[in-house]
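note to self — DONT lose this again. spent like an hour looking for the file last time. sequence + predicted structure for the chain T wanted, 479 res
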Amino acid sequence: MATEDAAPKNDSGDSDISFVQTKLLVTQREFQASAFDVALRDGNENRAPLEKTHKWFNDQIQELNKMAKNLTFHHERCNAAKLPDRKALEESRKDHAKCRMEENTVNKSNVTPKCAKEKKKACNQMQLVFEDAYCDYAASQKEICTELESCFAAADAAWAPALERLKQLLRYLHYTFISRARLSCLGEAWPTLLVDGSLATASIKMRCKRIPDTSHLQLKYPNKPVRKPCVKRVVPVPGNKGWSDAEYLTKPWKDFVQPVTACRVFKAKCRQAKGWTYIFDFTDKRGKDDIPDGKGEIMKGFDTENAFFMGNRKLKQLDLAKMDTELCLASSSAACIESCQPISANSWRNNSCKIKSFKDPIKKMIAILSGQCAIGHHSNTFMVVDHPIFPKPHADKGWAINSREHRQCNHDIWGTGDYCKGGSGFHVNGWGVTFCPQGMKEILTNNGPGAELSYVTYPKHKWTLDVDTMRIRCKPKAL
């Protein structure tokens, strides 16, 4: 019996085909060592057997299915963003309501006026905390929803190209599988064609053109995820019409509530540090009037696009004796690099400015720093700071430009009579940073007309750091 690789012989034992035909006669296994199989070589094997070919296709469709599942990755990452937590808001609301109920009880009982006053002060502070928490929640909701919209827009833009690319790969895999099946079909027919001259090649071609079953090479495409609900605009908020009535009107303690503090318009240009309460925060947008010019407006507090001050009423309620307080200067154009100095009672220097609103020297300094007092120049130092310099890469720069003043142990901060269009504000001795709510004199700054915070122009030295941000902040002292 002839083996699979033996050539057919006639009755005389001679070969019935020529030498060339013998060389052309290949088995199915040999025929399948095509260029495609060469691409499927495994290790040192020269040819991939048929079962490895099938495994290769199965492996590829599994990889494509993984890619299909990953189509939703970016959308799911967007939806994974946590929405603002209402816990702080709800707790502050309960704390305020509890305090007002206690205040209501205190006022109906036989207590001293001092006791009633202290309770009212405590409840007013809790009201501020609650209203700030409400504003923070609304601002966080808007910020996160805006980020979610942007994230989904980017994910949507990437979805269609990624999906089309996956479909292209699947079409190519089908084409490769069909081509491979047809090649195998032709290979199987080849030995028969060599020995059977009556067999028509046309019928074999027609048979091998049939499209093989590709149902095992299909993908399940995921649906494009839908953006999770996010209420971008929380309304009303403190300061809006109807908010106060909704929160306080039906409460038995409604008559004890102080005027509502509206939510801020201001948005910090440099990130505010966690754990600090910002009393004053201001970034000077060159050419724009960011700070109110009048002393009365500043005392009430202000809230503009680029500047914020809580006002004397709120400042008065802060117990700064139990807090660390700092004055910080920064440059928004230099990655918000910042230099901060503590403000303490020891920083205070007596001067000609009369701040009647406060007895606390720290609060007096804050009032002058915010622009509430017009005082003179050299003889009117109101505070001293300890050699403030900026961190690297600007460690060679301080709050003052003059080299002598920059290297001295302390910097005097005094009035601005010689530098500002109006008298209020402050100036760091040594051609240093100067704050003028009504604008600096143009001849003394390189930052254009109307600059409100800037180094004073120093004729012998060009200072490359643009200090345009000023902040006053406080936080509870560490235990």
